[in-house]
Amino acid sequence: MRLLAANAAVGLLVLATGLGLVWSREQARQLDLSIRDQRDRIQRLETEWSRLQLERASLAARSRVERLARERFDMHTPDAGEIWDFRP
Amino acid sequence: MRTAWRGRFAQFLLLLGFLGVTAQLVRVQVVRAPALQAEARSQSVHHVRVPAIRGPILDRHGAPLAVSTPVPSVYAAPPEVAASPDQLRRLAQALDRDVAALRKRLTSASPFVYLKRQVAPQVAERVKALGLPGIGTVREYRRYYPAGEVAAHVVGFTGVDGRGLEGVELAFNQALTGRAGKRLVERDALGRDIRTLRVERPVERGQPLRLSLDGRLQYATYQAVKEAVRRHEARAGMAVVLDPDTGEVLALANVPSYNPNHLDGTGAAQRRNRAVTDALEPGSIFKPFNVAAALEAGLVQPDTVINCEQGLMRVGNRRVHDPHPLGRVSVRKVIQKSSNIGAAKIALQQDNAELWRHLRDFGFGLQPGSGYPGETRGILHRPHQWQRFDRATIGFGHGIATSALQMARAYAVLANGGVRRPVTLRRVAAGETVAGERVLSRQTAAQVKRMLNMVVSPEGTGHRAAVEGYRVAGKTGTAQKPGKGGYEEGKYVASFAGFAPVADPSLVAVVMLDEPTEPYYGGVVAAPVFRQIMAQGLRLRRVPPQPGRQVAPPPVPLRQAQGDKAKGEQVS
Q1: Contacts of residue A30 in chain B, CB cutoff 8 Å?
Q2: CATH architecture of B228-249+280-418+432-538
């Protein structure tokens, strides 16, 4: 009788750890998937970030800003002699 | 009886069968296990190299000068490729490649070949959509240079593999590169990643690099040089702007330039960073160092009278002459009017070894120390090789050679009161002091400064370098170029070197134009470029103009003007 009970307990434990193994592997798979998703996301964001950086650089290019200031706003770079210091 | 025998026989067969199965099991699971496992792993487990992104190069204010961005490249593993002629045709179409050439690549014996590197994202999508086994895309990085030709020589460029080949990209390649990571990945039969087993080495991104360059001043400098080269039809032009207190290179421009984003069709002539790698005879912009050496040695004073021989002097059997003859004048005037004879006489008063040591102290014959690849140290011969005439010509900047960068560094010594510092392309953090070596007394530096300020006065050769509102010091130079068998008629290097404001110099600048057409004088063609660069530089550095040095009256302040308008008065 006691032998039977012990066997049953061991059997249950084996079943439980078996299920635990399956569960943890599934977890690992899920986590791995999400790591991969995040990595893809990093890559996408990285690509976008560098694209935006380049876009900003080309929009803020000195030559472009200078041209716009000249043509659209009729401005010019102040030459020496056109700069005054009003600090007390 | 017969049934019993049959039963035994069946039993025996079963036993034999089981024994066979067991034996095979043991063989596979135990005996051959290691070999089989290794084989399985090699089919499903792969090492994957994860490329590190190259660090960006930024100007001193953080504006990007070089940025890497991920782009796909199409590769093939030829042994795994099995494409029908039709599929091959479509692949060739997607890649815009010749079918025959593509087939040749695909029959290569190597396990990995690039079919096309750095393609547009749409191209990569089209290739992926074909779904051919053994053909895929990997991520690579492409380098972009937002400043283009403006900062091309300083920044340099990388090859298609991302390694720095020129300029700062090469000089600081290691820090910029970072280190590629390594991952152990399990793959299914179709080559898709199932999971990462282990990160064997994490990716180390390349570090960002902050340069000392000021993007705005760099632009102003490049434009000024470019415009001057165009106007005077010069072969080349260069300019260097330094911070005299830190040795930082704030701007460095060369013309002709090139676009580092499109290298095809550009040659060495455009790519050469002349200001750093080319040594030229400096001519008269060298005179202040000869005079500083004589002052330091106590051989002359600023008001010592030198006889400039009315424009012609003999040294041995050779002659030195002045384009604008002078009589007996002070050392100050020798500099202000740029007399060759005066400078030669001052050099002749000095001892070879002493003069050499002083010139060396200014950094002539030494590398400026920026770490830029191919940095020249110029030519300064050993003093025991100098004949009397050599010493005379060195006095006015011939018989030696320097780069524009070396010259800027030497002028920085005069500007900062006598301390020589290494030149740096990396930004020096605010508050950080750069160690230097005192090579000239404060007093001598101040005396030379005053002389150089006179050069920029209305009577001086450099009056076109004057910047309204500031006291400027500098020196003009017009050096005849050496050619085959002596100096060449009509070929000159026109230059101007100087700093401002005199009292506490904020900027040092050197401008050189190679073979400008007539008028080729440094004071005429190079001084205005210097003026333009200085005016912009002083404004950008917020150096206030000095009161009382302004030529025009200040404009009416806005608030007052509006008030006047309200009263109906005309505002001009």
Answers
A1: none
A2: 3-Layer(aba) Sandwich (3.40)
Tokens of A22: 């399956």
What DSSP letter does each residue of B275-308 carry, written as one string?
HHH--B--GGGGHHHHHHHHHHTTS--TT-EEE-
- CA separation for the pair B464, B432 (Å, rounded): 35
Give the pLDDT confidence score for residue B2 in this predicted structure: 62
Task: Give helix A62-73 / helix B215-231 axis angle, nearest 10°.
Answer: 80
Place of tokens 């089919």: B43
How many distinct structural domains can be found in chain A?
1
Binary contact (B469, A80; C-beta < 8 A): yes
Q: Which of B212, B284, B339, B495 is catalytic?
A: B284
DSSP string, B474-527: EEEEEEEEEETTEEEEEEEEEEEEEEE-SSS--EEEEEEEESPPSS--IIIIIH
| CA-to-CA separations, B226 to B237, B397, B529, in angstroms, rounded | 7, 26, 10
Range of the domain at A39: 26-75
For residue A16, tell me if it sits in a domain: no
List CB contacts (< 8 A) between A54 and chain B: 64, 67, 69, 144, 146
Which part of chain B has CATH 3.40.710.10?
228-249+280-418+432-538
- pTM recorded for the entire structure: 0.82
**Cα–Cα distance measured from residue B457 to residue B431, given in angstroms and rounded to the nearest whole number:** 35
Q: Which residue has the tokens 């002359």?
A: B300
CB-defined contacts A:B, below 8 A: 75
- CATH fold of B48-210: Penicillin-binding protein 2a (Domain 2) (3.90.1310)
Beta-carbon contacts of residue B185 (< 8 Å; ≥ 6 apart)? B45, B46, B47, B48, B193, B194, B195, B196, B197
Structure confidence at residue A77 (pLDDT): 81
Residue A13 lies in a domain: no
Q: List residues bridging with B438 in a β-sheet.
A: B419
Is residue B255 pLDDT above 60, yes or no?
A: yes
Taking CA–CA distances from B554, the nearest residue in chain A reads: A84
Confidence at residue B514, expressed as pLDDT on a 0 to 100 scale:
95
pLDDT band (50, 70, 90) for residue B570: very low
The first and second tokens of residue B292, run together, are 């500083």
C-alpha to C-alpha distances, B201 to A39, B181, B531, B560, nearest whole angstrom: 16, 5, 54, 67
Using an 8 Å CB-CB cutoff, list chain A residues near B183.
none
Whether A88 maps to a domain, the answer reads: no
Known catalytic residue at B284: yes
